[in-house]
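pls design
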């Protein structure tokens, strides 16, 4: 049964990556005019592809695991950039709201 599941995910991944929707999702992800904090359909689709890629390699995971990993990484990058912005503001003594 495990071989059938693995074959199913490999086939699904093969067709998903080669599809036109994948091309549009990549295009939306790269050139989207959304805010950085928006969670677009392109991002969710690319995460779905990542989930299928892992499953096709035999890695046991859920889509929620992959999504949580992505969102945790995004949160770390956001918090780091926020700290850097505050540090630069203090260093340059820049009160942008005044």
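designed seq:
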């Amino acid at each position: 049964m495990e071989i059938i599941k693995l074959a199913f995910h490999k086939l699904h991944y093969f067709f998903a990556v080669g599809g036109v929707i994948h091309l549009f999702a990549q295009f939306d992800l790269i050139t989207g005019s959304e805010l950085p904090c928006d969670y677009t359909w392109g991002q969710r689709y690319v995460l779905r592809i990542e989930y299928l890629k892992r499953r096709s390699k035999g890695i046991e995971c859920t889509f929620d695991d992959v999504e949580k990993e992505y969102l945790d990484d995004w949160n770390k990058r956001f918090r780091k950039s926020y700290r850097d912005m505050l540090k630069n503001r203090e260093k340059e003594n820049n009160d942008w709201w005044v």
